[in-house]
């Protein structure tokens, strides 16, 4: 069976959309007719060879998608899709059965396509690492991004007071729409003074670099900082005395370290939160599969608010 797929031929070349022959499912595999694919920064890092540089090429890209098995809506994610084996940016894919999670009633497959990476990250960071409650004051850096918008919605649903941050004035609206009580705009230079009154009990950071020092300075005693990305840079310098004297907890989250036994319950929980309206997905744009390289460029230009999808049908 011939299908159209976005193929990684070489790390130094753009992806190519071409026809490939889809093999029949083997043991513990199933064919999925795909609808929408989530596009995340990790996908670009993989395509560039910064992540999984020794994975086989050529191969189909894409680590998460929604689709249908015999008319039943499903989410497909994990199990090495897009790295160790062909991914899911295609009209159809043969995937491990362990990568398939059924969608709860009322969940739109379009929204579900962003749950395998961004949704799971947001859920684990908010509920299982930071353990956010209604007593918390939560600050979210990079709050207009795919994960950041979902974190804002989950923290708000938990009853916390939530402040968000963005570097662009025109992105304030989506952060407020997700439930933020206030949005700070700017770089890291004045962040500590802007947060002095708020004194977050929880900070969820996707930026790293110069943002870590003012976060440590501004945190309330016994606060929790969760780092899940370094979009601004991987190296950070901060005052260790502030860290230990305030008894702060600094926690890291890396989704690629999750085991199957951790991933599947997390995906189920994220989908239930989506169905309940506790986790919200803001879909910025849905591009056709043929524009997969344009999707990468929009991420590089930081034009995306919320989540970016590919139409795979």
List the helices and strands and how they pair.
Layout lengths: L1 E7 L7 E6 L7 E11 L1 H8 L10 E2 L3 E6 L2 E6 L14 E5 L3 E3 L6 H4 L2 H15 L7 E4 L5 H12 L3 E6 L5 H6 L4 E4 L5 H5 L6 E4 L6 H7 L5 E4 L12 H6 L3 E4 L7 H17 L6 E6 L3 H9 L6 E5 L2
Helix pairs in contact: 3-4, 3-9
Beta strands, count: 16
The CATH fourth-level homologous superfamily of the largest domain? Medium-chain alcohol dehydrogenases, catalytic domain
Q: How many helices does DSSP assign?
A: 10
Q: Which strand-content bin applies to the residues?
A: 25-35%
CATH architecture of the largest domain: Alpha-Beta Complex
Helical content class: 25-40%
State the shape: globular
Average pLDDT taken over every residue: 97
Instruction: Outline the biggest β-sheet.
Output: 7 strands, mixed
The CATH class designation of the largest domain is: Alpha Beta
User: What pattern of helices and strands is seen along the backbone?
Assistant: EEEHEEEEEHHEHEHEHEHEHEHEHE
CATH fold title of the largest domain: Quinone Oxidoreductase, Chain A, domain 1
Number of structurally distinct domains: 2
Structural class: alpha/beta
